[in-house]
Amino acid sequence: MDIKKYLSGQENKYRRGQIDRRQFITTAIATGLSIPAALSLASSVEAATPQRGGLFKIGSRHGSTTDSLDPATYENGYMQNLCYSYGNHLTEVGNDGKLRGELAETYESADAQKWVFNLRKGVEFHNGKTLDSDDVVASFRYHMGDDSKSAAKGLLSAVKSLSTDGPNRVVFELDAPNADFPFIVSDYHIVIMPASGGSIDPTSGIGTGGYIIENHEPGVRTMLRRNPNYWKEGAAHFDEIEKLVLLDVTARQNAIMNGDVHSIDGVDPKTVALLGRVPTLDILEAAGTLHYTFPMRLDVAPFDNYDLRMALKYSIKRQELVDKILLGHGALGNDHPISTSNQFHASNLAQREFDADKAAHHHKKSGHSGTIQLSASDAAFGGAVDAAQLIAASAAEAGIQIEVVREPSDGYWSNVWNKKGWSACYWGGRPTEDWMFSAAYTEDTEWNDTAWKGTDAANKFNGLVKAARAELDNDKRATMYAECQALIHDDGGTICPMFANHIMAVSKKIGHGPIAGNWENDGNKANERWWFV
Amino acid sequence: MHPVLKTVVQRLGLGLVTLFIVSIIIFAAIELLPGDFGEAVLGQAATEDTVAAFRRELGLDKPAVLRYVDWIAGAVQGDLGNSFSGRSSSGVDRSRPVVDLIGPRLWNTMFLASFTAVIAVPLALFLGISAALYRNSIYDRVVNAMTLTTISFPEFFVAYILILVLTSLWPIFPSLSNISPDADLLDRLYRSAMPALTLTLVIVAHMMRMTRAAIINLLASPYIQMARLSGASQREVILKHALPNAWAPIATVIAFNLAYLVVGVVVVEVVFVYPGVGQLMVDAVSSRDIPVVQACALIFAATYIILNLIADIIGIVTNPKLLHPK
Q1: A97 with A86: CB under 8 angstroms?
Q2: Which of A103, B244, B311, B321 has its CA 20 to 30 A from that of A531?
């Protein structure tokens, strides 16, 4: 284990050029590797070493003629990817899912309520201006206040005051403690732009990012060229980038098969196996936060009964659903909404499996008899009705009768979901645990689609979520969030059998590190993270 | 006034009247569309108040007649108003003038239509005339069978077959035709080759068969018999005697197909990601972006009227009977 660690440290040094090939091979042999193994290791490190240059063409399944450069209006993956290319944020989510400083070199808080961000020095905007705290304050103010129409306004509603402390420090005061605040400032809307006279020019497209916008044709393409003064080391390897809007899935897949683009997102799971046979392509998959659920409402009988909920949770074949509904392009869910790409995923929580005996045991204990209705429609997610049929079939093995009610797609979200006792649903997921729980599981949210409140476990869960919000120690938060996940997993009303993958097709000419799961396209930062080999 | 000039002026006047009537029909049809833009954008957050405020902001609360007059007065001056979309959930108004939205795309559509016409029209005429010349020969049958085959397949199928052959198996052309406005002519032609070829295959049959039929139809006329008796060869009979009288129906069919190239190539645009006006209109209909839909419909109507006008004029000018009325 130590040798492995030491070797990977050496690989990093070699990659960064701190040692040369000879030194690397010598140290590799010293750890006990044979000479051929050391040589091939050196070559593989070289292949993974980013090279500068080239025109990278990336096709996106998003994009619209109304896409404006104004960061208050970003609402699709195309603009998110673009703003991560031309601009930077105070913090960023790395491809390991962990948060790190971007324009803020460090950030700190004593009580999770007053946050201080120390800005990186010597960062230049595309227009030559040097970044200082006034720019940051102006960029944030643009998304705040009563007249702001920004999509990020709600995110920043907890910011009570915001001030500069010298040219390189910004201080935020929140109205309640929030340990996830540094996560929130990584939101793509809040791109840092140069201020003049205390405000930013939102549509200028000027940022501190690795690429400068040459030409933006909304809904068609964007041309970008490398920022020669980019501050970030080991990033922005391409000389030029052409971003294309390719809405039609067949056109998109044709384009990558014929080499007209180097990367596409949104590959169709039905044809991904065929696309994978193209010798020039790699299929990249990353487990994301998108998950499909079957919420049972605790305010509707018989789902108020703990044993009945457990009986249903045990009567679902999760792997079968992943295989047949997602065609294998997904990950198993464990009856809670936190994905493996989240920071505090509870990996110790045992995976729930189909167990006919346990299901029958709990069903008997609940005293329920007769059929249980499960409402589904493909409005919830593609294949929801089929998934419901599979659930009915597996539950029948445990002696539980489920009647699948096929609901009309029209009005599904207003008449069925969040109203009927048991229905199908999807959640896009959220980058932090607190965000996800506050959206759909705490007692005060309207979208608590399981009506999970009032039980002992729910009360404990709500207390834990509040406490974790104010807790700064990451180890303690991990423990608290693990407990939250366990509480939903057992007592909660949701059945979460699967997480869907982001599926991309990428040319073999492209090199990349581990792929992030938080968004498509390597956290939508492929432009600055990838390179030509 | 020269009779031809007089006819042209008359037809132009009639064309304007038609366009005016069409504009009323467009406006009325859109009034009848189900759904409301305010409700479509605001979704479940649409309370009566917010929808009313939204309609006020867009001027949708005014009576229809007044809105029609506003629209048509602006359109005459080249101002087609502002697009409705872009005022979506975030609330920031990033709507763009309709002219800015349509302009570059209309230019792209016209470019593709002209490019296709330059290939398809001479090809169809040549095939049609030569098929008439060698009527019922193997050549005639092969040409007929081929063109009927290509017109019988749906456009997207022809497009994918072409992609398979010309970009996957033998990479000659790119499968993406997303031309950029600053590209030079050669690059534009190269990039639009695939959609132009697809459309050529789709429209050639109609024009070719009409040309052939019009000529063959005339070959039974007494004056052709006369020409034959006077010793003209088959080639002379067709090119000198039959063709001049066949121009009118041929021109009508060509005009019809050219109009189709401008207004009906959405599927081909989607397959090749060609930034044309057809896709824009379909998107606008689904998002209830009324100003864009109206402007597109008006432009399409004008295209039909102008092309048919030209076909009529060609029909008159080439027909001695109409040219010199007694």
Answers
A1: no
A2: A103
Closest-CA residue of chain B to A60:
B273
Question: For every one of its 533 residues, what pLDDT tens digit does chain A have, with 9 covering 90 and above?
Answer: 467 677 777 776 666 556 777 777 777 777 777 777 776 766 666 656 788 889 999 999 888 777 788 888 887 889 999 999 999 999 998 888 788 999 999 999 988 899 999 999 999 999 999 999 999 999 999 888 777 777 777 778 888 899 999 899 999 999 888 888 998 899 888 999 999 888 888 888 899 999 999 988 888 889 999 999 999 988 899 999 999 988 888 888 888 988 889 999 888 888 888 888 888 999 988 888 889 999 999 988 889 999 999 999 999 999 999 999 988 888 899 999 998 888 889 988 999 999 999 999 999 999 888 899 999 988 788 789 999 999 999 999 999 999 999 887 766 776 788 888 999 998 877 788 888 898 889 888 777 889 998 899 999 999 999 899 888 888 999 999 999 999 999 999 999 999 988 889 999 999 888 888 888 888 899 999 999 98
What is this model's ipTM? 0.71
Whether A516 contacts A93, CB under 8 Å: yes
Q: Report d(CA A362, CA A343) in Å as an integer.
A: 33
Residue B180 to residue A217, Cβ atoms within 8 A: yes
Size of interface A-B (CB pairs under 8 A): 84
Q: Do B89 and A75 count as a contact with CB atoms less than 8 A apart?
A: yes
Residue A422's SS3 state is strand
Identify any residues that bridge with A100 across adjacent strands, giving them in sequence order. Answer: A92
Cα–Cα distance for residue pair A226/A105, rounded to 1 Å: 23
Q: How many CA atoms lie within 13 A of A480 on its CB side?
A: 22
Residue in this structure with the two tokens 């504009």, named with its chain if needed: B23
Q: Where are the domains of chain B?
A: 1-96+287-326, 111-286
Q: Cα–Cα distance between A430 and A518 in angstroms, integer?
A: 9
Instruction: Say if CB A7 and CB A24 are below 8 A apart.
Output: no
Say yes or no for a CB contact (<8 Å) between A258 and B168: yes
Q: Which of B175, B271, B275 sits opposite A260 (nearest CB)?
A: B175
For the domain spanning B111-286, the CATH number is 1.10.3720.10
Q: Does B92 touch chain A (CB under 8 A)?
A: yes
